[in-house]
């Protein structure tokens, strides 16, 4: 086929792109612009899934100006088609194909059927199933939320749904430790990308968290972020490196003192920017740090912004205000005003507490009706909450579901080599550090204790954490080689694949490692809740790090109490620090979000005691315990409970969980993937219940099937198994394997034309039935989310010899089980004889489908206006009371309503598949 710039072509790979125009031709590639959706696509010339649009005399065409023409003549000039036709005034008009409207449709199934291009009936059934599943997923309220490898936790799903559905969300995620802020951010990113609300995302994190984020985004959400560091930037060609990738992850430190690099990042244009550990940005009323200025500039030129930070009580009110200022500088412009407003929100919280107890507070705002039901009054109070739309914070107390923590202390004699050594504080806490070899293993009593304890706890899984990678490696080697204990090491020096293998070996219930020995950094971000024994080989000098260690097992979903084992050397800094954490802060039994703040408060008194314990230590313990208790009480009393109510509305979260579970229940997805594999020639092997091994075969339909490696890929459909077995792919309806395979079905002609025979009693042989499947084709930019109201909506028709509609009487599944295949020579002989009959039946089917389309479009527009209109009215009324509602959010909503209406009105039918059935 010959391409020329300006020609109009249709992608039969993706009809929703509309009509494309050739804009660039290279020796091996061709680029088309699709004006209807504002996108460009580049294809390989020899395999482009394109069909040249050529109308015939008698066809109706539309121009970009909305002029309708009946084609009366066609000429070709320099490779471009010129159409002459009459408009509704009977005037003759000539237009170039360049002037054609971008909203078009081609009925290729009919062309294939009448030209004898048939597919298997199984492929026809696969196409029907794909369209039905795709349509259901488009309209699902849980769209974008079901594909993550996470537990279905109410607070996470609620936040992801609330934030992920917004246009350019700008929010602060400030959940307490262990509640999964990274997961919430990942779910929001995933939903924004999947629904087309965002396409370019930048994540900035501290250097120590780069690997954790890279792994979490890939492992939990199948998002492939590109890691940018100094080495990668040095290797990249000239130009803006940040424009080379859509999903970019890098450290904030990468930009320190590099104004040119900062300007490149600012110029790249981002739909969503994510800042982790945002409380480390330097800001005060008197001085603003370079890091804060850069993020401030980035937030100003980026549509969406997610800030992840410690809870406000950990970082202080001024620092908290600085984060909110990044989200909306016009709203949060003055610290003193913000502090005054915060006090007002506490009063609203007290009102909500009274309403929950059934008492109507006397100071209820004048615009609220005290006769309304208490639950409605609480909802209205939540809407008035100043930071409720931009700040989300859940607490462990509010979320509940956490296990008990049980501390076991093991005093051990201090060996002479350690006692005699003159060391600094770091080596007092970690006495093995000075040894360049592993000789310390022979005399450190913790090593022998570890061997003995692991054998006693066998076969229970045990997580061992120590501060340094060298310690972890030496311990694991000793356990594996000298003690005969199945173990694996997990530390920052390993590659992503090596870490995943170690974690999978530990997770394996049969034949796996009994223990996993982790370093401090190596254990970050991993979920090992299938184990409940934790051994702390040493202790960190930071309460938040200790909390993070315990948080590897102390997570929602942990089914047993967490047993914390701490061996320590008597009369050492280890014992002193253990006593302070245990008796002073009670950290082993109760999580405390203000741990580091308490440490900072007692730092000057604690550090000398770690060097040499004195009689003052008991006083320190008493003072620390009293201060900690007072701090906990203040946090509980002073917390903005209204905000916590707004951070997880249980009834909304319940519906999301129910929707996801209903989509995962049964074996529908499993059977669908098996049908995909059969169609594309992928071998399947039973692994275990609801788990398969997929391998490429020599007779595959295509050279590659998404997600299946050359060595084979193990997939599971069980969420719990997917969480514990990281060596398996957890397959959901939103997994890239399923999404891309569905695209492969719908972007090709597979299954769109079939022919079969059917034995029916009482029906004369040779009777013809025509089964037609239509979908609604709405060409619209993805960001509008029109498919939420107007999904594919498959329309199935079954027309008999007299033109009667039988689809309701004979369901597709029943018909499919009865139809038999026809040999190709016989099928071709039949087709030659039934051209006119097929055309006649198609005319009937088209007429009936058009009638149904009108009903679907009317209902879709009504649903859209009701849904988005109600949200717009609510936000417009709210903005009078709550300045956190941004004007650009309202403007986008108004724009979206009008644009959605236009695109729904332009929607048409697309014939997806035809099957001719002859009775025998």
Topology:
Layout: E1 8-11, E2 19-25, E3 29-34, E4 39-44, E5 50-52, E6 60-62, E7 68-77, E8 80-86, E9 92-96, H1 108-114, H2 121-138, H3 154-164, E10 170-173, H4 181-194, E11 201-205, H5 210-221, E12 226-227, H6 230-235, E13 247-251, H7 259-267, E14 272-275, H8 290-300, E15 304-308, H9 312-315, H10 317-327, H11 335-356, H12 374-383, E16 391-392, H13 396-399, E17 405-412, H14 416-420, H15 425-429, H16 445-457, E18 462-465, H17 469-481, E19 487-490, H18 496-507, E20 515-518, E21 533-536, H19 543-550, E22 562-569, H20 573-584, H21 595-611, H22 617-638, H23 641-646, H24 650-664, H25 668-680, E23 682-688, E24 691-696, E25 713-716, H26 719-724, E26 729-730, H27 736-746, E27 753-758, E28 768-777, E29 795-799, H28 812-818, E30 820-821, H29 824-833, H30 835-879, H31 887-906, E31 908-919
Parallel strand pairs: 10-15, 10-16, 11-13, 11-14, 12-13, 14-15, 17-22, 18-20, 18-21, 19-20, 21-22, 25-26, 27-31
Antiparallel strand pairs: 1-2, 1-5, 2-3, 3-4, 6-7, 7-8, 8-9, 23-24, 24-25, 27-30, 28-29, 28-31
Helix pairs in contact: 2-25, 3-4, 3-24, 4-5, 11-12, 20-21, 20-22, 21-22, 30-31
What do you see in this structure?
The chain is α/β, with parallel strands linked by helices. It is 41% helix and 18% strand. It has five domains: 8-106, SH3 type barrels (Roll); 122-134 and 750-919, no CATH class; 154-333 and 387-395, Tandem AAA-ATPase domain (Rossmann fold), CATH 3.40.50.10810; 403-630, 3-Layer(aba) Sandwich (Rossmann fold), CATH 3.40.50.300; 666-733, Dihydrodipicolinate Reductase, domain 2 (2-Layer Sandwich), CATH 3.30.360.80. The chain has 31 helices and 31 strands. Strands 12-13-11-14-15-10-16 form a seven-stranded parallel β-sheet, sandwiched between helices. Helix 30 (835-879) runs antiparallel to helix 31. The longest helix is centred in the last third of the chain and has 45 residues, at 835-879. This is RNA polymerase-associated protein RapA. Its EC number is 3.6.4.-. One of its GO terms (molecular function) is ATP binding.
């Amino acid at each position: 086929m010959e391409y020329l710039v300006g020609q109009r072509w249709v992608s039969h790979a993706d009809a929703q792109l509309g009509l494309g125009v050739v804009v660039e031709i290279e020796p091996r590639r061709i680029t088309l612009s699709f004006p209807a959706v504002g996108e460009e696509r580049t294809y390989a010339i020899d395999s482009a899934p394109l069909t040249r649009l050529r109308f015939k005399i008698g066809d109706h065409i539309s121009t970009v100006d909305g002029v309708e023409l009946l084609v009366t003549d066609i000429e070709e000039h320099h490779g471009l088609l010129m159409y002459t036709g009459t408009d509704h005034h009977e005037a003759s008009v000539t237009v170039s194909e360049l002037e054609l409207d971008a909203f078009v449709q081609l009925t290729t199934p009919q062309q294939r059927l009448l030209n004898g291009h048939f597919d298997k009936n199984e492929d026809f059934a696969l196409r029907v199933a794909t369209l039905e599943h795709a349509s259901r997923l488009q309209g699902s309220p849980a769209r974008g939320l079901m594909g993550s490898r996470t537990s279905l936790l109410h607070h996470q799903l609620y936040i992801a749904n609330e934030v992920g559905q917004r246009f350019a969300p700008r929010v602060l995620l400030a959940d307490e430790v262990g509640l999964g802020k990274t997961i919430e951010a990942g779910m929001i990113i995933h939903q924004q990308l999947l629904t087309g609300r965002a396409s370019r995302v930048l994540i900035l994190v501290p250097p120590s968290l780069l690997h954790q984020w890279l792994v979490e985004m890939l492992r939990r959400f199948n998002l492939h972020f590109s890691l940018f560091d100094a080495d990668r930037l040095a290797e990249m060609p000239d130009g803006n490196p940040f424009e080379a990738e859509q999903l970019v992850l890098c450290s904030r430190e990468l930009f320190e003192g590099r104004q040119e690099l900062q300007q490149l990042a600012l110029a790249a244009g981002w739909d969503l920017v994510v800042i982790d550990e945002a409380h480390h940005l330097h800001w005060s009323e008197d001085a603003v740090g370079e890091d804060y200025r850069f993020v401030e500039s980035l937030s100003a030129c980026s549509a969406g912004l997610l800030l992840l930070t410690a809870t406000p009580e950990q970082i202080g009110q001024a620092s908290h205000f600085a984060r909110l200022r990044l989200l909306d500088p016009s709203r949060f412009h003055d610290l003193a005003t913000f502090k005054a407003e915060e006090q007002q929100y506490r009063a609203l919280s007290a009102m909500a507490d009274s309403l929950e107890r059934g008492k109507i507070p006397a100071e209820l705002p004048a615009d609220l009706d005290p006769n309304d039901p208490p639950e409605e009054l609480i909802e209205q109070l939540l809407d008035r909450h100043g930071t409720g739309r931009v700040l989300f914070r859940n607490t462990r107390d509010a979320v509940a579901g956490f296990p008990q923590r049980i501390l076991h202390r093991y005093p051990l004699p201090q060996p002479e080599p350690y006692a005699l050594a003159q060391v600094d504080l770091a080596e007092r806490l970690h006495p093995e550090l000075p040894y360049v070899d592993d000789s310390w293993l022979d005399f450190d009593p913790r090593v022998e204790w570890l061997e003995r304890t692991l054998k006693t706890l066998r076969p229970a899984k045990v997580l061992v954490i120590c501060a340094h990678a060298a310690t972890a490696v030496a311990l694991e080697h000793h356990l594996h080689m000298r003690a005969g204990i199945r173990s694996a090491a997990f530390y920052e020096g390993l590659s992503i694949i090596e870490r995943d293998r170690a974690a999978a070996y530990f997770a394996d219930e049969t034949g796996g490692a009994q223990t996993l020995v982790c370093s401090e950094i190596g254990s970050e971000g991993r979920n090992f809740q299938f184990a409940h024994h934790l051994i702390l080989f040493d202790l960190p000098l930071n309460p938040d790090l200790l909390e993070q260690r315990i948080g590897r097992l102390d997570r929602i979903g942990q089914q047993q109490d967490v047993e914390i084992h701490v061996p320590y050397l008597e009369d050492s800094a280890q014992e002193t620090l253990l006593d302070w954490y245990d008796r002073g802060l009670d950290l082993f039994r109760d999580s405390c979000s203000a741990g580091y703040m308490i440490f900072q408060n007692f730092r000057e008194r604690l550090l000398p005691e770690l060097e040499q314990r004195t009689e003052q230590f008991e006083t320190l313990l008493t003072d620390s315990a009293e201060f900690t208790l007072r701090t906990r009480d203040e946090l509980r009393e002073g917390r903005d409970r209204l905000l916590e109510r707004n951070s997880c509305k249980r009834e909304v979260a319940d519906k999301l969980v129910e929707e996801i579970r209903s989509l995962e229940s049964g074996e529908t997805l499993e059977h669908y993937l098996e049908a995909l594999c059969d169609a594309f020639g992928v071998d399947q092997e039973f692994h275990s219940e609801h788990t398969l091994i997929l391998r490429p075969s020599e007779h595959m339909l295509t050279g590659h099937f998404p997600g299946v490696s050359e060595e084979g890929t193990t997939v599971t459909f069980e969420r719990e198994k997917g969480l514990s077995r990281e060596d398996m792919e957890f397959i959901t309806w939103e997994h890239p394997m399923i999404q891309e395979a569905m695209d492969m079905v719908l972007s090709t002609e597979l299954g769109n034309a079939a022919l079969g025979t059917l034995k029916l009693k009482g029906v004369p042989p040779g009777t013809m039935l025509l089964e037609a499947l239509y979908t609604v084709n709405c060409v619209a930019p993805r960001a509008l989310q029109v498919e939420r109201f107007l999904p594919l909506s498959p329309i199935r028709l079954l027309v008999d010899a007299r033109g009667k509609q039988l689809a309701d009487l004979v369901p597709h599944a029943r018909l499919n089980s009865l139809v038999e295949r026809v040999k190709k020579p016989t099928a071709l002989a039949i087709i030659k004889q039934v051209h006119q009959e097929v055309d006649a039946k198609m005319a009937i089917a088209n007429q009936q489908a058009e009638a149904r389309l009108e009903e679907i479009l009317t209902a879709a527009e009504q649903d859209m206006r009701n849904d988005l209109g109600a949200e717009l009215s609510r936000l417009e009324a709210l903005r009078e009371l709550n300045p956190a509602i941004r004007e650009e959010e309202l403007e986008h909503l108004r724009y979206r309503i009008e644009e959605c209406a236009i695109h729904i009105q332009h929607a048409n039918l697309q014939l997806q598949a035809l099957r001719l059935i002859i009775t025998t």
